[in-house]
## 1
Amino acid sequence: MRRLRLSHPAFQARAKALRQKLLAWYRRNRRDLPWRRTHDPYRIWVAEVMLQQTQVPTVLPYYRRFLRRFPTVRALESAPEQTVLKVWQGLGYYRRAMNLRRAARTIVRDHGGRVPADPAVFAALPGVGRYTAGAVLSIAFGVPLAALDGNAARVIVRWFAVTDCIDKARVRRALWETAASLVPKRLPGNWNQAVMELGSRICTPRGPRCPACPVRGECLAYERGLQENIPVRRARRKVPHIEVGVGIVWRGRRVLICKRRREAMLGGLWEFPGGKRDPGETIQQCVRRELKEECDLQVTVGRHMVDVMHAYSHLRVTLRCYHATAAPGRARCLGCDDLRWVRPSEIARFPLPVADVKILEALGIDRAAARRNASLP
């Protein structure tokens, strides 16, 4: 990326025009969202964490539910981790919820329960990166910091016709410098939200709505007809697919569930035990091996129950689920953090990955009964 001369009068004139036109458009057209009706830094912070890699319509019900359960930093700090994960269930990227709770504990312990306005202090909290710090502090406290998410990066790349690959570290650094130079000292939060709003609704990844753009006259990509060709990204690697053998392991009328290792993907959530099928292995053999490795449990694998397909950002999985009967003997936590023998109707009390919720539905659990048991163990 050619280095923009940020102090040059021509750049400053363009920046001034962008601010005036975009902020005027934002005042007239911004969406009425719950986190825009508050100055509470905690509520703004929760929204910004939820919105990372997640669309607004998906976030809205989770945001309302989360704040009903944890309306303050202190309420979140005092809640058990399993309760927080259960309320977050289905939103994905569960590490975000765990880091929010860890950060809340730090705020209560070290800052009297008040979200710190100091950029260095806030940025040191668990899970807070440069984007989160810029977004929360600019919106809640008026600190003139940039907030460069995917939408904002795409908008700035098009405004200045950046044709270099934006996945390169030097280009990302230059984009942050440019974003910071555009942030006004007055109402920086409105500016950051306006840029992101433009990227979300007008300057979209494909088919940007340039005729509706309030700043198209200041956009070099539009002027040069490049808006459909940038940003330039590295070619995506093919997403791998794996098969997982899953055991619905019965002992009498109870079924086994296991808590995933804290450091693993989906750490802290509960699941039906199983794991990746090895080359040359049948699914039944995989289930037997995984139950022995994970729980020190011998099982007899019975009939096939259901196949569940699920896609993550970096991986596609097919869960091949089989009923199984546990042999006598005590199960032990070898590859998991905890395990329980529970009645099927109780499983909905535990925080589960989306794929395991689908398995639960395939078990035919009465949904009304599951809702009645929706409190945590």
## 2
Amino acid sequence: MTDGTVGSVVRSGGTILAILGLALCLGFAFLGCGSLFAWNGRHVVEMHGITPGTPLVVPLSPEPGRRYTASIEVALETDEGVEPAAKMPVSARAVDKGGATIVETVGWLDPAEPPTMLHGFVAERLVGSFHVSTRDPIELRVDLGADRTGTARIAESRLVLYDDVTPPNIKRALGASAAGGVMFLVGIGLVFVSFFRGRKKRGLRPP
């Protein structure tokens, strides 16, 4: 195989590699960034049902360096056209192994008043967020009272624990985008190397 043929094969291979790499890079970057922008920064760790009027204690074995958030969520049922309404006393806190309070929220779970947030028919009250630096155990203590208005039908009450770990699908998409970027650079490098190598050989050719 002549040098010219080898150079042509390298250029063709480099061009194909660059095109494929660029397509992968842009495609997966679009998917990954779209998912990243839609992500609310919370990754579900565990979920526990809450019985209004019955205190709930949940042990947590944290991972150092992570940020945790607890969410008290109540799914409400109402008649068609009626805004969901409830007024439930709530006390929730995270405590360390010595019993000291790390973060706490006290007040009402009321979809009509902040800091309660309403997502469709789910009222949410957040506890935290808080960072941890050790693996020392933590307890989440939640006391959610019964609805004081008497107008809401409670379909479900739960405690959801979140951390800030990036979801695997976002990591995979961004990783594939980075791999595509490497392929693109390698392909462009092959094209330029074969091009300048060919020019050099032509320049050294005797008259």
## 3
Amino acid sequence: MKDSATWIFGRGASVACNLKWIVPEDWKTLGREKQISLIKKQLKIEMDSDQVDTLPYKNLLSALSLRTNENWCHLFITTNWDYLLEKEIYNLGLQVLPKWLCDSFVFHLNGTIEELEDNSNRSPFLIETDKASDREKTVETNIAFNKIAWRQFFIVVGLSFRCEMDKFTLSILNTVEDDLPIGESCWIVVNPNETELKDTMSIIQGYLPRAKFYPIEKGLNDWINSGLTELAKVGIINK
């Protein structure tokens, strides 16, 4: 069985693609369904803007496809609503699943604005003001949490785990850390802000005290351009 590197992308990954839009503060006083409707509409507009450039994702997928060692593959999970990463995976024109990918599907923990023919199994659309108790069990989230719990190597890009929704993921993992591989996990944490980088590692360690960390004080694009050195050091990709 192959080892898998599980990527968890937060807002910082979208920012690397120049998708910097955030929910306006005055929207948060509106009703929940109104907020969701406005978010989906505006974020689609922002995604289609000429300013957005998915080159970081394209370069990442290219590097992983060329350099991933034979006994490793990659799984992609995100807390973002956009589907920029999916667009780049689609552009690969895959006919069969390549050896370097565990799954070509990108798991969205907080929902997505992507409209498929059948979204019934997808995660519900969750907003910042929602509580963890608002999260419903779905096929997508169940599969994602099960995959995470059995993995040991993670790459977190631009995710702080500060909000209640994102901490919920860690709290679920905390309940199984003594029995499953996640308890002895290793985390590469990528964030160009030193304070946020340290805070993210501290939050993760609060839920997974035996976890080990490889901090990278860079943005996604800079890390890719520098050669993803840390992935090579641990043997996931070749030099």
